Amino acid sequence: MGTKLAAIIVSSDRVLQKDKTNKSGEIAQDFIKNYGLQLHFSKVVTEGYTPVDNAVQSALVAGCEIIVIIGGTGIGATNFTPEVTEKYVSARLHGLETQVLLRGLEASPKAGLSRGIIGMTEHGGGSLIINCASSSGAVTDTLSVVFPLLPDIFRDCTN
């Protein structure tokens, strides 16, 4: 699979305002390190469509092949992570989304409230975008499902 360049985007006003620690972002960084990926950046952005969209654009321009977006997957007024992701995803991985949901439901019925999307920006290549709900458990569940499959995901890609 080779070394892949990764980015973490945390959409959280509470983390920005220091009302909450960035534990979820730290968990994602640990996954990236443990799977031998290269972290290009990890940033916290304010909630809303435009800040998340700008961060995703930055990651794509930088050549990041794995983009983990944490937060903004619910139904709140500032939760637009899935809408931003839909703009970029060409090949959605519904099966992985279902696996993440099933894993999450083992721990909490609130897992069903996440609208997170997982998919590739191009058929046969591009970047993998992974949405995670903001809790540390949700990030662990999501990345525990997706990261072991990275070699299979990128084996089917031509880039």
From TrEMBL:
Gene3D superfamilies: MoaB/Mog-like domain. Keywords: Molybdenum cofactor biosynthesis. Pathway: Cofactor biosynthesis; molybdopterin biosynthesis. It holds the Pfam family MoCF_biosynth. The keyword Phosphoprotein does not apply. The keyword Calcium does not apply. GO terms for biological process: Mo-molybdopterin cofactor biosynthetic process. Residues 7-153 form the MoaB/Mog domain. PANTHER family: MOLYBDENUM COFACTOR BIOSYNTHESIS, MOLYBDOPTERIN MOLYBDOTRANSFERASE. This is Molybdopterin-binding protein.
